[in-house]
């Protein structure tokens, strides 16, 4: 059996996020869906898996159902498949942030960098004036990254602020292009950098996963696998599972 996997997020004001937890869990459980969804005042984030019918029904409920009252009108979605169920249970967690940066002034609903489509990404990062920045954690970068990308060598995303403060300069680094798995960390990171005075900040729309789906391998600037936070471990071009990367994680 093949399972449909949906990675999703949206930054949107959810002042009632605590009241959404139980009904959202019930909606997923009723459809046999497993995975993790995070709810915070700033929005929703997570990855879930189930049958194609179950996932499609959930997405329709999120976008059009009464629970969110039409607030998830700009939901970032990325679909892939799994040969086995990649999650053990369904969890809906309440968080302070749907992706933890730890800077209250950073608000992606107010200001973010310039989105760049997967089809335009190669031409951007080939510009010698552009600094290419991987915003993911060190073990993710080790599994795969874009040619020429800077590894900030962070253990967790909240350390990104310190990296920017110590290693980057708005007066020197005029054009910064960044990427992450599905796009959510770049929303926060680009918003933060704009707040620190960086003028031109670009980020890959839909993240690495969108790039691996849209860009032919013959034209790709990506090397290795893209780590995903479930039992598949890593995906490659065409969003195909890379079982060879599971041994790399086991060696850690």
The appropriate CATH architecture of the largest domain is: 3-Layer(aba) Sandwich
Portion in beta strands:
25-35%
- The largest sheet has its strands arranged as 4-1-3-2-5
CATH homologous superfamily (4th level) name of the largest domain: Rhodanese-like domain
The top-level CATH class of the largest domain is: Alpha Beta
CATH domain topology of the largest domain: Oxidized Rhodanese, domain 1
List low-pLDDT spans: none
How far do the termini sit from each other? 30 Å
Which class do the helix and strand fractions yield? alpha/beta
Major sheet size, sense and barrel closure: 5 strands, mixed
Assembly form of the protein: single chain
Overall tally of structural domains? 2
Textual characterization of the structure:
- This protein is α/β, with parallel strands linked by helices and 252 residues long.
- It folds into two domains: 3-94, Alpha-Beta Plaits (2-Layer Sandwich); 114-249, Rhodanese-like domain (Oxidized Rhodanese, domain 1).
- It contains eight helices and 13 strands.
- The strands form four sheets. A five-stranded mixed β-sheet has the order 4-1-3-2-5.
- Strand 12 and strand 13 (234-235) form a beta hairpin.
- The chain is globular.
- The two termini are 30 Å apart.
- The model has no long low-confidence stretch (mean pLDDT 96).
